Amino acid sequence: MEVKRKIVPPAYLFIALLLMWLMQGYFPVLQYIDPPIAYFGVIPIILGIVIAAISADLFKKVGTGIVPFEEATTLVTGGLYGVTRNPMYLGMFLILFGVAALLGSVGAMLPIPLFIVVIRNRFVLGEERFLEAAFGPQYLDYKAKVRRWI
């Protein structure tokens, strides 16, 4: 049985954003994008917010828990979940990528792989086991048809 985590994924998003800001301020490694081109980073930020919000709203509409490892009453497979099994995490990644582009340095990009590894290991893999136990063949069929990311 998977244990509910005390720190939820949005906290890791904010930690990664803080690390990006610190890296940019104290270890500005190779500035590779400057304004006005860096302003295009707003596009993935907005896209990430929209993807995460739409995905979370779908959980709310079907009445299933949004917090990882809470009781899942419904397997959500429609909407963006028909394209990726983890649209909320994908949205968070896009937010981080957009902020890194706005900051424009390699140093600001460095927390992104760490965020991906933490989310995958602390949440995604456990959630997959959790959903498989809760929904069995229905989840396995969904998992076979829809990729983990994109």
Features:
150 residues; mainly alpha; single chain; elongated; 6 helices; 63% helix
Description:
The chain has 150 residues and is mainly α. The chain has one domain. It is built from 6 helices and no strands.
Give the topology, please.
Layout lengths: L8 H18 L15 H21 L24 H17 L2 H4 L1 H25 L1 H9 L5
Helix pairs in contact: 1-3, 1-5, 2-3, 3-5, 5-6
Could you say how many structural domains there are in total? 1
Strand tally, please? Answer: 0
**Strand residue content:** under 5%
Order of helices and strands: HHHHHH
Mean pLDDT: 93
Distance between the termini: 28 Å
Shape: elongated
Low-confidence stretches: none
Binned, the helix content reads 55-70%
Radius of gyration: 17 Å
Number of helices: 6
Largest sheet: none
Structural class, by secondary structure, is mainly alpha
